[in-house]
Amino acid sequence: MLGVSSLFLLLLLTLSVVGFSQHTPKLSRDDFPPGFILGAGTSAFQVEGAVAEDGRSPSVWDAYTQAGKMMDKSNADVTSDQYHKYKEDVKLMSKMGLDAYRFSISWSRLLPHGRGAVNPKGIQYYNNLIDELISHGIQPHVTIHHLDLPQILEDEYGGWLSPKIVEDFTAYADVCFREFGDRVAHWTTLNEPNAVAVVSYDMGFLPPQRCSYPFGFNCTVGNSSVEPYIVVHHALLAHASAATLYRQKYQAKQKGLIGLNVYSYWFIPLTNSTADVNAAQRALDFSNGWIVHPVVYGDYPEIMKKNAGSRIPSFTRSESEQVKGSIDFLGVNHYTTAYIQDDSNGPKSNVRDFNADMFAKFQFSKDDSPSGQILPIKMPVVPSGLQSLLEYYKNDYGNLPIYVQENGFGGPQNESLNDTARAEYISGYLNATLSAIRNGSNTKGYFVWSFLDVFEFLAGYVQRYGLYHVDFKDKTRSRQPKFSAHWYADLLKKSQEMKIEMATQQAMAHPTQ
Ligand code: IFM
Fold first, then answer.
1. CB of 406 closer than 6 A to ligand 1?
2. Lowest mean pLDDT, pick from 247-261, 285-299, 338-352, 368-382
3. Strands, DSSP E only, in 24-160?
4. Residue ranges covered by each domain of the chain
5. Rounded to whole angstroms, how far apart are CA atoms 254 and 74?
6. Helical spans, DSSP H, in 289-375
7. Active site (annotated) includes residue 192
């Protein structure tokens, strides 16, 4: 039998995309509605490096990687070195024609104690990056927190498990709005709180590695039945508190928008039996509705409250009012689609976790055997899944503005620069996005994950998502465009007609310039 770590090795080695051969229609920028944003993204811990420079303190990810816990024993001490190479990277983005760059701020670089004194070097770095982007005509889309919690807050009160995080996150967000909000019009408070809750507090695979028997990977601490629900609850309250602050104190003047990100699978019933159709809806409610239902309707989906019972926290009336309507847009990270089989007639244990509460089994191809696990062994390419997902958000959640904030293709460590499969993947998913828009979805933008190869949270450097190749063995971390970078640049070329339209819009907005 495969041990847990070899199972994960298998996962990581095969996480790249399988089974995509159809040819998708050639795209041009003119196919997208006016103002549609085409960008690419990264996150602070995954690209910056410079982990002990200029006053930054460790995050939970520094502690985890430096203790040698990654399967490839890697860390992100240098990673793509964007801290030192941001000017070069912005030039590459500009050459590529990106409308926007999505990046995150490192909380422990800005506030090394987690709260209180602000690190001037941290402010300076993000000011420099933002100014560099703007001077090249690239919009900064900023995520305030992308997994890298200051270790000091984890040590002090258990991070996301404590309600204290709400106040500290709000104060941190306040610093971001105050210092950068004059130039940042798109804020996302948190990245993938649903995925963090399951992978770190149910499976215990990633920091802070909490789980409990019979779930997860032999953790020494944690409670898989309860903690994922608590973590998401605090994340929603922290998001809502920061959004309220932004709206009350900054939005009128800075004229930006604030959103929240959700890791979103699409789910297809394995058969057309009523039981499987209902199970697929349950999976959507648990996986996506966990985040989106509260921010649209002020509470968790009924099925979650029923199945998790007292293990899922309740919102007070005033919390519910604050959470409801707390997003101007939804950030969607989407990579793949899974089949769902009903599991409501099997033996029901009293000791359940998030997955077990769903009473559904996942499989990532029709031929796989079903499993209770939400992480895929293979990552099938199903562009129509993104179209269905965007239309489900339109139909079930009031046609919110959406940014697809992450979508991309994981290739192997030794992938060639001729990554045609990545271009084909992106092309397929962009076509799917367009189909959803044509059917009325209010999708406003799309970001490839990732702009360049980065430290991957699940796989270290064993997996590459970048449009640009980074040579991690080279001291200078040299960058080289892959085929997909040229392909995306070609798509991003603005037509003459569009250039005239943009120049006219700009002249009308700034008549004296
Ligand atoms: O690299 C990650 C990112 O940080 C969060 N979403 C999934 C990506 C690919 O694994």
1. yes
2. 368-382
3. 37-41, 100-104, 139-145
4. 9-17+41-411+442-465
5. 40
6. 290-297, 302-308, 317-323, 354-357
7. yes
Q: Tokens standing for 225? A: 């039945």
Tens of pLDDT, residue by residue over 276-287, are: 999 999 999 999
Domain 9-17+41-411+442-465 falls under CATH 3.30.700.20: no
Q: What is the pTM of this model?
A: 0.93
457 CA → ligand 1 middle, Å = 7
Determine the Cα–Cα distance for residues 82 and 103; give it in Å rounded to an integer.
11
Distance 309 CA to ligand 1 centre (A): 31
Tokens read off for 47? 């690209």
Computed on alpha carbons and rounded to an integer, the radius of gyration of the chain in Å comes to 22
Token look-up 């980074």 returns 470
CB 508 within 8 A of CB 114: no
Determine the residue of 458, 462, 467, 470 to mutate for testing ligand 1's pocket, defined as the one with the most ligand atoms within 8 A of the Cβ atom: 458
- Indicate if the alpha-carbon torsion angle 137, 143, 146, 151 is positive or negative: positive
Question: To 10 degrees, the CA torsion angle through 406, 409, 412, 413?
Answer: -40
H-state helical runs in 191-330: 193-201, 227-245, 251-254, 274-284, 290-297, 302-308, 317-323
| CA pair distance 80, 477, nearest whole angstrom | 6
- The neighbour count for residue 299, using CB atoms within 10 Å, is 16
